[in-house]
Design goal:
Layout (H helix, E strand, L loop, with lengths): L10 E3 L5 E3 L4 H17 L9 H40 L5 E5 L4 E3 L2 E8 L3 E9 L5 E10 L2 E8 L11 E8 L2 E3 L2 E14 L2 E6 L4 E3 L5 E2 L1
Antiparallel strand pairs: 1-2, 3-11, 3-14, 4-5, 5-8, 5-11, 6-7, 6-9, 9-10, 11-12, 12-13
Helix pairs in contact: 1-2
Length: 218
């Protein structure tokens, strides 16, 4: 006769009154196993008693199942604690300016700010400030730039249009060779939270990003 400690999964209540599913409660699983084992011993055939090896195998199986359940509970608890730590880390970023991939120009106090990344050195870099429709508003010549991440600032004091939807594009060359570049948008973190085990940040420009998408703190 083979014992099966998962034949039923009643709901149990602990000393604090909290209900738990007995199918995932290691203590309840052990209790069911012992009850089944005692019942089996009491009702075994005297002419064909329970084999010691079979009993040892069943005890080993219940110990393995209990160990796995306890490990799962421990990992779940660690995951919950990690999520809490992530949120705490995220709250420390609220109010900070971050850079993420994007071409939106952040304008405040009559100054537009943004950034870009270059894969290699450039002999000349040009920034074009544009409207949402692509019309060029102004051009900034930055000259030669080394490989890596850079920021720029645009004087918006003379611009009379709405600045909410301004964009920018980067043109970088090394001699006559055009270089690829990654535009970086600047925005302020306004909220933080966790979703599916990942830290999520809400930005002032309305976007929600993963923490891993941050390129730089400014």
């Amino acid at each position: 006769m083979i014992l099966n400690s998962a034949t039923s999964a009643p709901t149990v209540t602990d000393a604090t009154g909290t209900k738990a599913n007995a199918a995932t409660d290691p203590a309840a699983a052990q209790d069911r196993f012992l009850k089944l084992l005692v019942a089996q011993l009491n009702n075994q055939d005297p002419m064909n008693p329970l084999d010691n090896a079979q009993m040892t195998s069943q005890i080993a199986q219940i110990n393995t199942v209990t160990g796995i359940q306890q490990l799962n509970q421990t990992m779940q608890s660690m995951a919950e604690q990690f999520n809490s730590l992530q949120v705490m880390q995220g709250t420390a970023l609220i109010g900070r300016n971050v850079m993420t991939e994007g071409s939106s120009l952040a304008v405040a106090d009559k100054a537009g700010k943004g950034g870009f990344e270059l894969p290699s050195a450039a002999t000349n870099v040009k920034i074009e400030v544009t409207t949402a429709g692509g019309q060029v508003v102004d051009t900034i010549d930055l000259g030669a730039k080394a490989a890596g991440r850079h920021t720029f600032e645009w004087d918006a004091s003379k611009y009379t249009g709405t600045t909410d939807a301004l964009q920018f594009r980067v043109t970088a060359v090394n001699g006559s060779t055009k270089l690829s570049s990654t535009p970086l948008a600047l925005s302020k973190v306004t909220a933080a939270g966790a979703e599916d085990g990942q830290l999520k940040l809400t930005l002032a420009n309305g976007k929600t990003i993963n923490y891993s998408q941050i390129k730089a703190l400014v």
